[in-house]
Amino acid sequence: MTEASAARVAVTSTLDYYLLDPDRPRGLLVEEFELADDLSATRLRTAGWTPADGGWWSSAAFARAVRADPDVRARVRAVSRAGAAEAYRRLGGGALPDDDALRDRFRDDVSLAGAAPLRLDVGPPVHRVLFAGGLDAERLAAVRSALRLDGRTDQGVGRLRVDGTTFRWELRHAGGVAWCLDVTAEPLDRDVLRSLLRRLTGVVRGHGLVPATVECLG
Q1: pTM of the predicted model, to two decimals?
Q2: If both were cysteines, with which of 45, 75, 215, 217 could 119 make a disulfide (CB 3.0 to 4.6 Å apart)?
Q3: What 3-state DSSP class applies to 22?
Q4: Rounded Cα–Cα distance for residues 4 and 181 (Å)
Q5: In angstroms, rounded to a whole number, what is the distance separating the alpha carbons of residues 52 and 94?
Q6: Residue 183 and residue 24: Cα distance in Å, rounded?
Q7: Which class for 52: exposed (0-12), middle (13-18), buried (19 or more C-beta within 10 A)?
Q8: Residue 172 gets which letter from DSSP?
């Protein structure tokens, strides 16, 4: 992501879309993270649509399983809204409802509120997006390229400067079993940071990882 891409940082929709059983799609999963003022995630809102099961449903248990169970996670694949709308039409749903109408389907939420992690270093707050899933060498190379990461660490660092604010992001292992994207803004500009977090998270989602939460460290 370069200086010229700054104009494209703004993001309007905050919904995430997934195909269910993507090899032979049978429905959709729609999700949204609700963020606090510090941009940490307070809850995950989710709804699925499977015409064979009677239409729309909402299940916190399924959302948790997507993040905890590799077999369940293998049954979902991130798509754009356009891709979701096409699948919805092909499966007999007609026109995909707009964002506000889809939010009306969110009824069984996952609470993500909790104490902020202890931070021992100094500097700007770190906004950490935690992801479930793994990256093989091929997908890691692809996501590194998409995030415009340099080669100074094993996973890499990206940078962007917008109107006097320097943004920095790093993709790395989290505990050796998952991945995280750490993003900082100096000085802090939460309006632009919110959009950049959304954009960067979307890039990583597109390479097979599933966001689990957003933390603000500091």
Answers
A1: 0.89
A2: 217
A3: coil
A4: 22
A5: 15
A6: 36
A7: exposed
A8: E
